[in-house]
Amino acid sequence: MEFVCDKIQPEHLQVIYNLTLEMARRGDEESILEFILDELFKQTGAEVGAFIIYDEAKAEFIPRIVKVANETSDMNPSFSKTIFEQVVKTRQAVLSFDVQKESEFRGRESIILSDIHAVLAFPLIVEDRVYGIMYFDSRQNRQGFNEASRQFLSFFAPIASLTLEQVLRKRDLENENVILRKKVEKQVTIPRMIGESPPMKRLFQIINKVAQSDVSVIIMGENGTGKDLVARAIHDLSPRKDKPFVAQYIGNIPSTILESELFGYKKGAFTGANSDKIGLFEAVNGGTLFLDEIGDLPLELQTKLLRVLQNKEIKRLGENIIRKVDVRVIAATNHDIRQLVKEGKFREDLYYRL
Question: Is 47 helix (H, G, I), strand (E, B) or coil?
Answer without folding.
Answer: coil
